[in-house]
Write a structure and sequence with these properties.
The chain has 9 helices and 9 strands. The relative contact order is 0.14. By secondary structure, it is of the alpha+beta class. One of its GO terms (molecular function) is DNA-binding transcription factor activity.
Length: about 270
């Protein structure tokens, strides 16, 4: 089913094949879907470009070497950044019994990628024995691939969540920790302690991560590296490039090339 404009009723039906895959054509314009959910579990990723995925507990930025698993009925929103080509596998709730119960990001293996691409060519009909085997491979890969952290967890405390969302909206905001604590009506000590408790990151590390994930979105959208550095509040393009390289193992320019090439270029 090589078309993302499928009948939405299919992703909410337990009838038909227990797994089917849709793949979209390359598109130059960004797309966005607001909060929604499916009765089927969903594994989705990109062949080219970058996705950001919003769930209740956080925001994930997903390059082509990763995929997102969402259990059935899990509310989420999706947005692409820059030229994009993606795919989605939908699995009936019954077939999700032994799959992760919480959303997670997975590093896409070569086996999973090839199985998904093959399944994307199938018509929407009952699976024969050969196709059932390929579909089982996809399910097994979801079950066994290690989950990876490639997102921005959100705090649950309402005061901290307000601060976090303000920083997501404007990662370049230069207010220091004390100023943010005052703005959020929380003590500096509580801000520091609870950010670690609820996100696993210190406030400073979380803010740095928010900036770097926004940098990925801006790279995918074609923004120049120097402009990204300035817009995100770095002291210089060199400082931004060095931090980016330490975090992602490549310079922003090289990472942009990988996004443009897609998973096949990894």
């Amino acid at each position: 089913m090589a078309d993302l404009t499928l009948d939405r009723a299919l992703v909410d039906s337990a009838d038909g094949p227990f797994l089917f895959v849709v793949a979209g054509r390359s598109q130059d314009t960004e797309f966005a879907q607001g909060p929604h959910r499916h009765a089927r579990g969903q594994l989705f990723g990109s062949l080219q470009g970058l996705l950001s995925v919003g769930i209740e507990s956080g925001v994930w930025v997903v390059p082509a070497i990763h995929a997102v698993w969402l259990p059935p009925q899990y509310e989420h929103s999706v947005r692409s950044h820059g030229p994009f080509n993606g795919w989605s596998a939908f699995i009936t709730e019954a077939a999700c019994e032994n799959l992760p119960k919480q959303p997670c990001t997975l590093r896409v293996s070569g086996l999973l990628r090839e199985a998904v691409l093959r399944a994307s060519t199938w018509p929407y009909e009952a699976l024969d024995s050969v196709r059932e085997h390929v579909a089982a491979v996809i399910v097994d890969e979801i079950r066994h691939l290690p989950a990876e952290t490639f997102g921005l967890p959100l705090p649950k405390d309402a005061r901290l969540l307000r601060i976090a969302r303000a920083l997501i909206d404007n990662p370049a905001d230069e207010r220091d920790r004390e100023q943010w604590a005052s703005w959020g009506a929380v003590s500096t000590r509580t801000l520091s302690r609870r950010f670690v408790d609820e996100t696993g990151f210190s406030f400073t590390a979380w803010r740095q991560r928010a900036r770097l994930l926004r940098a990925l979105e801006l790279l995918a959208a074609g923004e120049p590296v120097t402009r990204i550095a300035i817009d995100l509040g770095y002291s210089s393009a060199t400082a931004f490039i060095n931090l980016f390289r330490r975090t992602f193992g490549a310079t922003p320019a090289v990472y942009r090339e990988r996004l443009q090439r897609g998973a096949a270029g990894e």
